[in-house]
Amino acid sequence: MRKKQFKAQSKKLLDMMINSIYTHKEIFLRELISNASDALDKQYYNSLTVKSAASRNDYVIGIEADKEARTLTISDNGCGMTAEELDNNLGTIAKSGSLDFKSSDEKEKSELEIIGQFGVGFYSAFMVSDKVVVESRANGEETANRWVSDGADGYTVEECAVDFEHGTVITLYLKENAEDEDYDRFLDFYEISRLVKKYSDYIRYPIMMENEKRVPVEKAEGEEDSEPEYETVKAPEQLNSMVPIWRKNKNEISEEEYNGFYQDKFYDYEAPLRVIHSKNEGMPAYDALVYIPSHAPFNYYSKDYEKGLQLYSNGVMITEKCADLLPDYFSFAKGLVDSPDLSLNISRELLQHDRQLKVIARNIEKKIKSELEKMLSDEREKYESFFSAFGLQIKFGIYSSYGMAKDALQNLVIFKSSFEDKYTTLSEYVSRMKEEQKVIYYACGETVDKIKLLPQTEAVNHAGFEVLYLTDDVDEFMLKMMRDFDSKTFVNVCTDNLDLGDENKELLAAENKENEELLSFIKETLSEKVSEARFTNKLRSHPVCLTSGGEISGEMERIINAMPAGEKIKAQMVLEINCDHPVAAKLKELYGKDNETLAKYAKLLYSSACLISGMAVENPVEMSSLICELMV
Question: Are both 23 and 168 inside the same structural domain?
């Protein structure tokens, strides 16, 4: 018997197949099961052409592990191969018999879910084995043939005797364990079961494997009270579930089934908030099953979290997390996409080009957005629960895209508001605006309670305007990127040019002009801490406040300077003193008579303004000393 060489630069090409194409060695099982499934599909089609009584229920894929011989066997009762087909399909690298079969013009063939495309999946067996034996008998043939190869050195084909009518049996002689690889794991029932569940759970033929179990021995009459005895028995178990839930019609699936699938598949102890089950029959055709979780995983806002949907092709998993299917701001979504139209690369682990994927991703994004808007409209309490878990990511979506995602996300953002202390959308805020109101007011702080205590918040509320309460670090940065909403710009109540329609502007301007030297003295006393000091009439009960005189607010300064890297920034702060408060009269009284005490008052007022604004006091010891000095 003469050993034949692989066709097409065999040694070099086969070595590349074995060592370079696939990311993980465990992929070999997915490839061999997929080949077996294709063989069963062909046999089923052939049975239809001869009007056989055979049905899909007659076909099965078998897996057998022999730990002593260190062999793993994958078998099927599919169409089998002749000696010539063994020579052509297995002896020619990148020759796909499945693709040739599906490429037929016959409509029935083209509609079969044939998985194989490139003719290289079989050779993944050499990633885990030193020797591969294929025994096959084609349907209707009297003789069977055996194909044997130790790898790149070539292969032999000879007749052999088999005990099956048609089909293929592939036996892998596993490699010896190495320091970096445990090949024995591919002989373990539970590892094989895990890999089948992971990659081939939705192959539409049963995948069977014998499993050992300890069961109690049936006792004879009169022995019921004795100690139980156990025996080890072997019984076949089906490893795959076969029917993908996403291929069923929606009206055939109960809420319990949807939730159960989600909790089992994505290891969540809670049911999801929403299920999005969609089907597209255009190009590309796909089924999608996407879930919106009810809570964020523990690592969601960390660098360890990986976004992405599971990607399947004809029910076979291609990748566990396809990041390209989700935008970052919807990274909380979990689920899967199954499409027969994906242009996969040779290893079927990656896409050759992403045109189809972009189309699918855009459709899924629209579906998620639509479902969230519907939840916001119809189930407000549930949406607020969702937003407390994932709203930060949506806000980051607007900020990190420099406002490019504004149109997609602005109607999903909600804030606590001074209106009834409830969450509000920007649309709802605008709908309640007074006719003369031209801007959307907001205030920033650590908590809503602290924001309410700000002097500026009190002033804006007293003027009859609603204020959005921003408590997340990203909030103000996000609004800066949005610039406006419904042609209404955003204004921080702590800005120095806050305009509440005051009728006494001229009197206030005269007040500041008259006390120009006093205010200049206070500014110089505080050095670089403030860019200006002035009197204001917008404060009610508060004596003093700090406002920002530029694009960078005090809250933005705090957040940016808290970051571990980058240059420190300084907001242009303005010290505003309530002209109607007794402290203003005291300052005027001291100026020119006791400037030393006036300077102490100025420092104390600045420290008080910092505390009121939620900013850190630079020198608390000095503040304490000044209080004590002025008390005695």
Answer: yes
